[in-house]
Structure formats: C-alpha cells, structure tokens
C-alpha cells in the first residue's frame, strides 16, 4: 500500500524516524539499487544533493560533510577530526553518556567503560546537567551556568595536570543519561570554557536530531539560536533503518584534517543508495510535516503524562521536548530514589500490551518515549491509557501488599527479614501469592 492506505506502523523506534518501511524510502532504495551502487571514490549526484539538503538544515558554518555507515563511525571520525584540528588529545564527556560501540567510543562512554576497563587517563567526566536529580536542581537560580562551571572545573583540573582538551562530547539531549533536557544556555557556556582551552564542541545528534524535538530540526538549537557546535554527528533516524550516518563540520576543522595528506575513505559510506535513502527521508519529513507533527503530538503526550503525574505518586518528573520524553519514576518524593524495579515491571507489563518502551538513566528508572515521528495523537492516548491502567493495578497490589509470583522458586529466596522491602518476584502472575508468613511484612509485586 502507498500513501494514505498504508498502515502507520509506529512501534519501531530507534532508527525508524518516519515509520517502519516507509514506501517512499523503500522505493528510493530499490530504484537506486537497480541503477548503481558503488563506493564514494566515484562521483555521483546523490552525495552532492544529499550534502546540499543537509546543509540547508544546519547553521551556515557547518558546511563540510563526511558520510559513513553508523553512528559509531561518525563519532570516531569526530574524535579524529577534533584531535587533528586541535593538536590535543583529551576528551570531556558527560556522566553516563554513550557514544558508540567502537573501542575509541567505549573509552568515552562512562555508561560502558565503568563496566569494562574503566576510565582512561585522557577521559574526563563532567556531571550530567540533570535539574531533577543532579547537584543543581529546579530551584537553582541559574543551573545552566552552574553545570557549565562544573565543566570548567574539569577542564582546569585537566590543564593543571599538563594535559590538553581536544573535545567536549555530549548528546544534545542526553538520552542514555536519562532523557535529560539540559538547561538552555548550558551548551554555549560549556563551549566557551572548552574553546578557551583550545578544544572543540561535538554535538552527538544520533538519537535526538532530525526534527524530533519539534521546534527545531536539531536538538542543539534548543540551546539558543546563535549556538553552533564545531562538529555535529548524525545517524540512526537519518536513514530510517538503512545504515547511513554523517559528520558535519566547519571548513577550518575539515581543512586541518585534510592537511595530513591522508585521505578519508569509507567504502560504503555515502554510496548512491545510502544517499538516495537519506534524501527520501528528508522528502518524507518535509512532505508529511513531521517536525511540526512531533511538536504537536509531543505536547499532547506531555499533557497526558502530566495528568498521570497528578494521579500516580511514583511519577516524579516528566520532561521532554517534541517526541523525546522521559518519565522519571521514584520511590518517594523526598529522596527521589530511582524506582528501578517498578520501571522494569512497567516496561514488562507494557510489552504484554504490545507497547515497547525501554528505560534509561543511571538508575534505569526513566521510561523513554522516543517513537517514530509518525506517532499520532491516538497512539499517545492509547499508550498513556495503558500506562495508567498498569500503574493503577500496580499501586493496588502494593497497597494491599499482595504478592504474585511468576516463578515458584523465586518465592523461596529468603528476603531480608525484619525490614519492609520491595521484593521483586519473577515468575507467573497467575501462580498465586507468597507464603503468608512472608507477605505481610514485605511489599511485593510480580514481574
Ligand atoms: C547517542 C548515541 N551515539 C552513538 C551511537 C552509536 O550509533 P551506532 O549504533 O549506529 O553505531 C548510539 C547508538 O545507540 C547512540 O545512542
């Protein structure tokens, strides 16, 4: 089916920004595949047209484009560009960030390196600009400046050790960090500190760019009209599932990279098919006005979730912009302790209802809403109604200390007696409750 006949398949998040198997994107790939697919050593109009179209979405300064196959390749190239341009080596990243799966990127991803080889001496971590759970919260008079001062502090301590900053890397909206919306003005302040130290600002837009935030095409633009990163990396959504990624940068950075005399070559990056797909995705975004759609459906979703916050005390915070929304689940309002097990439970129950959400953030307690941009008002209503029903049911179970277990053996685990704890019981909800000797003193629920 084409156009209006086509069912809007929205549950495929991640890379499919304009909807799973969009016919125009599929057709563009198919048509180009029938004509020519070769590597970028051979000139083809598609690559030039695609670079031209992308440049129309970006500030004028970001006018040089490198095409690649994945977000990781894009961030790895960004790292090389930054180091070549600055002549420096060290990198500052935000806590709990993820920038990709290559060795170089595991090194700059606290989300990964903490569970692997640990932090390298050239990597420096600044706090997430999280105004809900971080050191500077919603009651702080200027959290943007306060969090940027933390970066300045990190940069200074690096310099005191005789080291030099090549780059500050951040997702424009730290998603893996817990769907964080940095306070406006934070990036320009950070960029000032980083550039003063001779480094560059890299905005990772791989999850969050391409119209998703609604008001702007790129999420870094939320930080102020005048703010321009030195390097922007993009991927995932730009190919709607096809492996396309891109690095946009300035003439100055690109010229410094070229000056090595060592060419950048990537066999499949920027192939005529990949660029045809990229162009088709841009066409769909424009034709279906998906950026405006994301703004409209996103505000409606936030409004519906706001109603849920008033009803369910487990919802501590709802934050978002366009179709990038986080629901921060807490155990209690005073401490804002992450409700990790409850979030896990909710995600499983939603999955039973054919709704696929994941959790993010250091506490794995932030429900992550990042649907394809064709997600509709009806879809928003449907998801929130299911969420409401599950939360109501869960609260009822917790109030009555009712225990359901899914695996009989899980009930045999001996809980920490003598204190009231939340016991997570894995198994089949139909199998019945924990032994009455255990149930009264423990709030329990099933997964
Ligand atoms: C913020 C961010 N940067 C980079 C990457 C790496 O992209 P890829 O998986 O396409 O290599 C990801 C992937 O999840 C990501 O979320």
TrEMBL record:
Q: Which cofactors does this protein require?
A: pyridoxal 5'-phosphate
Superkingdom is Eukaryota
Concerning Pfam families, the annotation shows:
Aminotran_3
Q: Which segments does the entry list as coiled coil?
A: none
The protein's UniProt keywords, in alphabetical order, are: Lyase, Pyridoxal phosphate
The answer on whether this UniProt entry bears the keyword rRNA-binding reads: no
Spell out the InterPro entries in the cross-references: Aminotrans_3 (IPR005814), Aminotrans_3_PPA_site (IPR049704), PyrdxlP-dep_Trfase (IPR015424), PyrdxlP-dep_Trfase_major (IPR015421), PyrdxlP-dep_Trfase_small (IPR015422)
Gene Ontology MF terms: lyase activity; pyridoxal phosphate binding; transaminase activity
Gene3D superfamilies per UniProt: Aspartate Aminotransferase, domain 1 (3.90.1150.10), Type I PLP-dependent aspartate aminotransferase-like (Major domain) (3.40.640.10)
Give the family from UniProt. Belongs to the class-III pyridoxal-phosphate-dependent aminotransferase family.
Its protein name is 5-phosphohydroxy-L-lysine phospho-lyase
Organism expressing this protein natively: Equus caballus
Per UniProt, what is the name of the gene that codes for the protein in this document? PHYKPL
């Amino acid at each position: 089916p084409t156009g209006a006949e086509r069912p809007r398949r929205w549950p495929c998040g991640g890379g499919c920004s304009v909807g799973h198997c969009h016919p125009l994107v599929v057709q563009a790939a198919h048509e180009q595949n029938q004509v020519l697919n070769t590597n970028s050593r051979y000139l083809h109009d598609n690559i030039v047209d695609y670079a031209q179209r992308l440049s129309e979405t970006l500030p004028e300064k970001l006018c040089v484009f490198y095409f690649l196959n994945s977000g990781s390749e894009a961030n790895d190239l960004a790292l090389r560009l930054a180091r070549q341009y600055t002549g420096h080596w060290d990198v500052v990243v935000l806590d709990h960030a993820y920038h990709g799966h290559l060795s170089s990127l595991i090194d700059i991803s606290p989300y990964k390196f903490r569970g692997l080889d640990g932090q390298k001496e050239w990597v420096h971590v600044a706090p997430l600009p999280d105004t809900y759970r971080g050191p500077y919260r919603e009651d702080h008079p200027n959290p943007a400046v306060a969090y940027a001062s933390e970066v300045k502090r990190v940069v200074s301590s690096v310099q005191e050790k005789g080291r030099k900053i090549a780059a500050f890397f951040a997702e424009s909206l730290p998603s893996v960090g817990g769907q964080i919306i940095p306070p406006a003005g934070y990036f320009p302040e950070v960029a000032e500190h980083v550039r003063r130290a001779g480094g560059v600002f890299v905005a990772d837009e791989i999850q969050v760019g391409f119209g998703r935030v609604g008001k702007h095409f790129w999420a870094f633009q939320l930080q102020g009209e005048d703010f321009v990163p030195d390097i922007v990396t993009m991927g995932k959504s730009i190919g709607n599932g096809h492996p396309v990624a891109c690095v946009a940068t300035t003439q100055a950075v690109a010229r410094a990279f070229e000056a090595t005399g060592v060419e950048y070559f990537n066999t499949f990056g920027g192939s005529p098919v990949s660029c045809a797909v990229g162009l088709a995705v841009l066409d769909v975004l424009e034709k279906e006005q998906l950026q405006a759609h994301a703004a409209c459906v996103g505000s409606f979703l936030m409004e519906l979730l706001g109603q849920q916050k008033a009803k369910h005390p487990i919802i501590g915070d709802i934050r978002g912009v366009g179709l990038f929304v986080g629901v921060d689940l807490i155990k209690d309002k005073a401490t804002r302790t992450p409700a990790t097990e409850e979030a896990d439970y909710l995600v499983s129950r939603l999955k039973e209802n054919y709704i696929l959400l994941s959790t993010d953030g250091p506490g794995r307690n932030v429900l992550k809403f990042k649907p394809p941009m064709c997600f509709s008002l009806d879809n928003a209503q449907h998801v929130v109604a299911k969420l409401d029903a599950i939360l109501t049911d869960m609260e009822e179970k917790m109030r009555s200390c009712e225990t359901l277990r899914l695996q009989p053996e899980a009930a045999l685990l001996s809980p920490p007696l003598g204190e009231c704890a939340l016991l997570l019981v894995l198994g089949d909800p139909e199998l019945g409750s924990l032994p009455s000797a255990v149930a009264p003193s423990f709030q329990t629920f099933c997964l």
